[in-house]
Amino acid sequence: MVEPRAQRRLAAILAADVVGYSRLMAANEVGTLAGLKAHRKELVDGKITEHQGRIVKVTGDGMLVEFPSVVNAVACAAEIQRSMRERNADVPEDRRIEFRIGVNLGDIIVEDNDIFGDGVNLAARIESIAKPGGVAVSGSVRDNVGDRLDLTFEDAGEQLLKNIERPVRDFNVDIFLDAAAARPGAINQVKAEGIALERPSIAVLPFNNMSGDPEQEYFSDGITEDIITDLSKISGLSVIARNSVFTYKGKPVKVQQAAQELGVKFILEGSVRKSGQRVRISAQLVDGKDGVHLWAERYDRDLTDIFALQDEITQSIVAQLKVKLLPEEKKVIERAPTDNVEAYTDYLRGRELFHMRTRTSLRLARRLFARAVELDPQYARAYAGMADCDSYLSQWYGDSISVEDILATTAKALALEPNLPEAHAARALALVNAERRDEAVAAFERALDLDPNCHEANYYYARFCFTNGDLDRAAKHYIRALEIQPGDYRSPLLLQTVLHSLGRLDEEQKYVQLGVKRAEEALRLHPENADPAALGASVFAALGERQRAMEWVNRALAIEGDPSSVWYNVACTYSLLGEFDRALDLLEVWLPQVGHDQRLWLKKDYDLDPIREHPRFQKLLHLGKS
Q: What's the whole-model pTM score?
């Protein structure tokens, strides 16, 4: 008998899942299941039928739907999300059921009423990067929908997605504007007010540090990030994310080329010169098509005026692009994280030092965060920074800091700013170290619900997932972390083991190359930091490049003479190269100084498999339990 052949066809695929499902289930399993069932019965299933969709499968919190029309698929997704916003209006934030939805148009394989193929895989990957309560679509969807729906599409740029070989152009659907357009007469009202349905798109290139002092780089980067953040709060603007624009940092840039590569109409560029208590900022708004300067200004002010200055730049951009600034948006933009410029400067400097993660840099960063809190006791981000430093110092370097004290610091941050993603991420890290792993998951999920682009939340969660044995999720968050922060060398290098174990060898090679490139740049910028060399050495060893691994080991040990995470990574290198006694010598000194999470890493790290059955290593494992 001849088996029926699988069918191929072009279809629009909608993938959806619940944001923070694990956190919701941990908090209230019965209520979450009942709420999800009600949303499906009263809203979702009906909208899918109305738009001629077919539910292919439902998996716990996820759903896969096929549509014969891409316009119907996007319209259905937008209507579901708009209705979900209304249904959640009176529900407390921590109990809201929100969906992420991704839509792709592509070739699928149909077999036994199920669907497979790249078109399906891409829909699922696009869904994973959609905003909570939002809809993300692929470039093919955007092109085919055209102007047939009263929706605005925000170009999020090219994204590297799991198991997808090439970068994918991603667009976010503006549900807010769609809701306004759906009201009777709203389209005419928008046109009458001169507001285009296609929002102006802008990229803020990293402002140049003109201070003549590389140590001031943190300040110019901080100014750039704050302007991006403020502009991103304006619903009438489409703003390219930090991780995309910071790839241009330190490079000669042709404005028109950057505009074309980023897919924007306008570019904001500028420079910062900080000298003593004075600051000079120059900014230029440029038309990305012809390079014409639309607006330029130079500000020469006291450092204490820095927040007002940032607000002026934002207001000028809004005025030049004729964007309507809503009253609530104006209030949010004018609300600075602190009113104290010294506290702000200390925070920016502390954040830069924290990312180096050496014992010295962490202690200095902690001191700066603490001074920021002394200057402004209401500075929530500085409290979160203190907690992160304390977690690393206690767990990685053996400093005597109790987990209870760290959790108390995160509680202060959250009391001041309950929706601060960095504070939830700091609390999650402390909970991991306190061996309260279920609570840590809920805190990680909450941080990512608030800001999927929070670097700390993605990086910490990736490490947690690795020690939890969830390699797929670890890979997902490592990849997101390295995309968010272009200087992050740890995530692509730590990905090597994860991707190798998952059999994703093509991706492994790609991210190793990226990680090595970033590690070399980190060593160039901070030759006093041995961490990039030590971590890179273990990756070279895993790939069988013995000579290069030993070159980086020698470099790391020449810099770092004290027991630290550097010694751990060197031990991993020795283990992979067959230098078992040298590996064990280092681990025996390192282990007694570190905390619970690092000891758990010792048990899970594949780099140590060659020595795992060695009697000395077994003794270390026994010590790790005590």
A: 0.63
What is the rounded CA–CA span in Å between residue 301 and residue 207? Answer: 17
What interhelical angle do 341-354 and 217-232 show, nearest 10?
110
pLDDT tens by residue, 280-320? 889 899 988 888 888 888 888 888 878 777 888 888 888 88
What CATH topology corresponds to 201-334?
A: Rossmann fold (3.40.50)
507-528 burial, b at 16+ Cβ within 10 Å, e below that, comes to bbebbbebbbebbeebbeebee
Q: Do residues 93 and 46 make contact, with C-beta atoms less than 8 angstroms apart?
A: no
* Pick from 528, 550, 519: nearest CA to 537: 550
* Cα 147 to Cα 141, 151, 584, distances in angstroms: 12, 8, 64
- From the list 261, 164, 250, the residue with the least C-alpha distance to 207 is 250
CA gyration radius, the chain: 25
Among candidate residues 156, 158, 149, 141, the one with its CA nearest the CA of residue 78: 149
Please state the domain extents for the chain. Answer: 7-192, 201-334, 339-451
Per CATH, the homologous superfamily of domain 339-451 is Tetratricopeptide repeat domain (1.25.40.10)
CATH class of 7-192: alpha beta
Amino acid identity of residue 364, one-letter, is L
Kindly report the number of other CB atoms within 10 A of residue 571's CB atom.
28
What do you get for the CA distance between the two ends of the chain, in Å?
64
Residue 137 is predicted with a pLDDT of 93
CA dihedral of 369, 370, 374, 378, whole degrees rounded to 10: 60
**CA 21 – CA 27 distance, rounded (Å):** 10
Report the DSSP pairing between strands 293-302 and 278-287. antiparallel
User: What confidence tier does 440 reach under pLDDT thresholds 50, 70, 90?
Assistant: very high
Q: Which helix (H) or strand (E) holds 396?
A: helix 380-396
Beta bridge partner(s), residue 299: 281
Q: 489: closest CA among 538, 451, 444, 440?
A: 538
Rounded Cα distance between 483 and 463, Å, is 16
The answer to whether the beta carbons of residues 458 and 450 sit under 8 Å apart is no
CA distance 605 to 496: 12
Alpha-carbon span 286 to 298, nearest angstrom: 15
**Is a pLDDT exceeding 90 seen at residue 321?**
no
